[in-house]
Amino acid sequence: MIQQKVISKRFGKVDPLSIDSYIKFDGYNALEKALTMHPTQIIDEIEKSKIRGRGGAGFPAHIKARALANAKQPKYIVCNADEGEPGNFKDRIIMENDPFSILEGMVILAYATGAKKGYIYIRGEYQNAIKIMKMTIQNAIDKGYLGENILNKGFDFNLEIRTGAGSYVVGEEFSMIESIEGKPGRSRVKPPYPTDKGIHDKPTLINNVETFANFPHIILMGGDNYAKIGTPSSTGTKLISLSGNVKNKGLYEVPFGTSIRDVIFKLGDGVSYNRSIKMVQLGGASGPIIPEYMLDMAIDFERFENFDSKTGTGAIIVIDERFDIFDILLINMNFFVHQSCGKCAPCREGHTQIVNLLNKIKNHRGTEQDLMSLENLANVIQQTSLCGLGQTSMTSIISSLRYFRDDYFAKVRY
Ligand SMILES: Cc1cc2nc3c(=O)[nH]c(=O)nc-3n(C[C@H](O)[C@H](O)[C@H](O)COP(=O)(O)O)c2cc1C
Ligand code: SF4
Predict the structure, then answer these.
(1) Domain 325-409: which CATH class?
(2) What is the pTM of this model?
(3) Under DSSP, is residue 205 helix (H, G, I), strand (E, B) or coil?
(4) Which atom of ligand 1 is nearest the CA belonging to 339?
(5) Would you say domain 19-226 falls under CATH 3.65.10.10?
(6) Which residue lies with its CA nearest to atom 6 of ligand 2?
């Protein structure tokens, strides 16, 4: 059994439209327990659990929670359910199967930090999840788990849903804040960070769907017990969106420390038609591309940080021997050309130049000088872009230059 179901343990068992069915499966026990604790004790448990955010950057959850708890009113909590990164579908599946756990996690955090208002920002294309989350909010209000005077404890927390409109960058926290304020989704210069100046310049905490869904489990099992799952540097489980040329595509939950190879071969049943693997892209379009011989690497924040990668999203995209790396890189780079918000030059102009260079090399018209230009430009975009989009979009180029250099030399003219 390489799966370990914590977040997904209720999937298929609870009716996502029925709060009573959630309550039957231990639903809201964590909130009831949390309300008997002092707010700082809750953040202490989160710290002991060592949980890191599941939305990409892997930032320790307790640091943001404590910063918000220490901030003045008004302050906000936001659940990031934008999930625009290609290859990821875990947040949609949580919302469609166990929506109450997300809400329960948000209410626990609201109590711990003193926030009275929150938003769930959902990707616009996720119409089914939007409908379910709206009903979940209403059901929770009707039963006294949300709204005014929650469970008669004199504590208020109100939630609103906001939806995206097809933009990828709006998943980045400052772009999301701008969008919640009713402006176009464009990032801001950091610092100050959202927990200092977020929505309407007031302190704001943003966590991913999967991060919030973990909080009730941390409260119920206790931070120390939670920290026993996974590895010392990456505790808990990770939802993996497995896709591409693999027999059993789907969502799997494994403890951190599981190898990529085990996910592909033991859970995904290997490559379709038993072809061999040419490459695997981790995290999504902004993640690294690695060769087959690296598949024994463990899923772990520290290991993935070697690639400046977004482990937290947990996508594994398998690409078999039939594919040319340049076609995959061009799909990624055209996506970023389309999604750049245009605010800063390295990202706005740079992605188009990268596409031109890749096309030139792919069609055997590129020279060694073009290869050097590609490498230099990728580093410039990564180092000088204003927000996380441009800072991470080059990961697939940079990793391919490291691990698939022969593919470049095979095409370059001398
Ligand atoms: C371009 C871009 C897109 C992002 N999209 C998402 C997203 O769809 N969902 C998400 O949770 N985080 C996304 N992030 C990361 C968020 O900015 C933020 O770090 C995250 O929501 C924090 O939650 P966590 O601490 O629980 O991981 C994105 C970041 C960037 C740079
Ligand atoms: S890096 Fe790209 S998406 Fe981010 S602010 Fe600059 S232009 Fe916009």
Answers:
(1) mainly alpha
(2) 0.97
(3) strand
(4) 1
(5) no
(6) 344
